[in-house]
Write a structure and sequence with these properties.
globular, alpha/beta, Rossmann fold, two-stranded antiparallel sheet, single chain
C-alpha cells in the first residue's frame, strides 16, 4: 500500500511538471528574430537600422577586403556637398586657405576678431538676440556686402574651435551662390515656404573645413513676408541653438532696397554695414542706419578704400560699434 501511494505521488508530480511546461510554452511571446526551427532561417526580416541624418555603409574587412557585418554611421549635411573652386575664387580677390598671409586676409582677421569676442562675451547674456548670428548688409546695392560676407566667412572658417554657416538671404540676386558656383534645388525661401522644417535638407557642406552654405532659394513673391514670419523666427533660433561653436553669417539685401535686412536685424545679435568709400553719400548711410535704431551692436566696414602712396587702388576698412 505504501509503495502504491509513493508511485501515485510520483506520477502526479510528473503530470504537474508536464502541465507547467506546456502552459509556459503556450504563454510565451514568440521572438520575431528567432530562427525557423525547420529551416534555420530567420523567422522574419530584421528591422532596418535607422539613423537620423546619417549614412549607413557596409564596412569592408581591413585584412580581406570583404564586406563585414559592422556598420559605419557618417554624419552629413542634408543639402549635399559642394566643391568650391578655390583658385577661381582667389583670382577674384577673395580670401582662401591658400592666401592666409595676404594683406586682405590680415585685414579680415582684424575685422572678425571683435565680432567673435562679442559673440563669446554675449553668448549666455542675450538669448533673445544671439550674438553668434551676424547680418552683413549695406545701404544700397554695389557696396560690396557679399564680398565682405564671403571673406568674413572664409576667415572665420580658419578658426580652430569654430564653424561657420554662410546664409544667402537675398533670393533676388543670390550673389553668394553665384560667386561660389553653387547649384541647388531649394534654399532658405523654400524652407520658410514649407514652415521652416527640414532646414538641414538645404545646407551644403563644402571643401573648406568648418564652412557650410545655405543658399537663398527660389525667388518667391512674398519673400519679405516669409522673412517676417514665425517660421523665420524658428529657423533663426534653431541656427543659434544647434551649435554653440558655430557662427552664422547672413548676407542680407541692402537696407534701403527693401525690408529684409531690417526685419532680420531684429532677430540677430550683431549687424555689419558695408559702406563704399568715396561713393556712398553720408546722408544715405545715415538714412540706412535709422533702419537699425535700437540695435545694440552695429559695426561699419569701409570698403574699396584707395591706398595712397603706391599708385593703385586697394581695400581697407573702418570698424566700430554703435549706430
Amino acid at each position: 500500500m505504501g509503495e502504491s501511494v509513493s508511485t501515485i505521488e510520483r506520477a502526479a508530480e510528473r503530470l504537474a511538471e508536464a502541465a507547467a511546461r506546456k502552459s509556459s510554452t503556450a504563454n510565451k511571446t514568440p521572438d520575431p528574430l528567432a530562427d525557423d526551427p525547420t529551416t534555420g532561417a530567420p523567422a522574419i526580416d530584421a528591422p532596418p537600422v535607422e539613423a537620423e541624418n546619417a549614412l549607413v555603409e557596409t564596412v569592408a574587412d581591413e585584412e580581406t577586403g570583404a564586406p563585414s557585418n559592422a556598420l559605419r554611421t557618417q554624419s552629413f549635411v542634408g543639402g549635399g556637398y559642394h566643391e568650391i573652386d578655390l583658385e577661381a575664387l582667389q583670382a577674384k580677390g577673395f580670401v582662401t586657405p591658400g592666401s592666409i598671409r595676404s594683406r586682405l586676409a590680415q585685414e579680415f582677421r582684424r575685422i572678425k576678431r571683435p565680432l567673435l569676442v562679442n559673440a563669446q562675451r554675449r553668448r549666455s547674456v542675450d538669448d533673445e538676440h544671439p550674438a553668434n548670428l551676424i547680418v552683413v548688409t549695406s545701404s544700397i546695392p554695389g557696396e560690396g556686402k557679399t564680398f565682405v560676407s564671403i571673406n568674413l566667412a572664409m576667415s572665420i572658417s580658419a578658426e580652430v574651435d569654430l564653424r561657420v554657416l554662410l546664409v544667402d538671404v537675398d533670393s533676388v540676386r543670390g550673389s553668394v551662390s553665384d560667386v561660389l558656383g553653387l547649384e541647388y534645388d531649394n534654399g532658405l525661401s523654400d524652407v520658410l515656404a514649407r514652415g521652416g522644417g527640414h532646414l538641414e535638407d538645404s545646407i551644403f557642406k563644402t571643401n573648406i573645413d568648418h564652412l557650410s552654405v545655405l543658399p537663398s532659394g527660389s525667388d518667391l513673391p512674398n519673400a519679405d513676408e516669409l522673412l517676417a514670419s514665425e517660421a523665420m523666427d524658428r529657423v533663426v533660433r534653431d541656427l543659434a541653438a544647434e551649435d554653440a561653436h558655430r557662427i552664422v553669417i547672413f548676407d542680407a539685401p541692402p537696407l534701403l532696397t527693401g525690408t529684409e535686412a531690417g526685419v532680420l536685424s531684429r532677430l540677430v545679435g550683431q549687424v555689419v554695414v558695408v559702406v563704399e568709400a568715396d561713393a556712398t553719400p553720408q546722408a544715405t548711410v545715415t538714412e540706412a542706419l535709422t533702419r537699425l535704431e535700437g540695435h545694440e551692436s552695429v559695426s561699419l566696414v569701409l570698403n574699396k578704400v584707395q591706398h595712397r602712396g603706391k599708385g593703385h587702388a586697394g581695400y581697407g576698412y573702418q570698424y566700430g560699434y554703435g549706430a
